[in-house]
Amino acid sequence: MATVQFINKEDIPFLKIIPAQVDLSTKWQEKLEYGVRLGNEFKGKTTISFQTSEGIRTVETTIWSATEKYISLKGGINIPLNSITDLHF
Question: Distance (Å, rounded) from C-alpha 28 to C-alpha 25?
């Protein structure tokens, strides 16, 4: 079993984010509606795992918004939905 490597949200812009082996974008759409509400109304955090050129990285942060292709985090940081491998609330 691979070790989860947590990173700080501020380190995301320095990573090369790539598509995950399996695109689960449609699966994440419904969950992300909850994640956006959790972040905006309750300041709750979501654990997001996503694929990078160096392997899967995980960050715990609030989701500010979600579109059909990206999630937006504080500070103008975007993560493509097709790179997300897991979400936990």
Answer: 5
Residue 59 maps to a domain: yes
CATH number at residue 56: 2.30.30.100
Q: How far is CA 27 from CA 1, 11, 85, in A?
A: 24, 26, 10
For the whole prediction, is pTM greater than 0.85? yes
Instruction: Beginning with the edge strand found earlier in the chain, give each strand of the sheet holding 55-61 in spatial order.
Output: 55-61, 46-52, 84-88
> Which pLDDT tens digit goes with each residue over 69-83?
999 998 899 999 999
For residue 4, what is the DSSP state? Answer: P
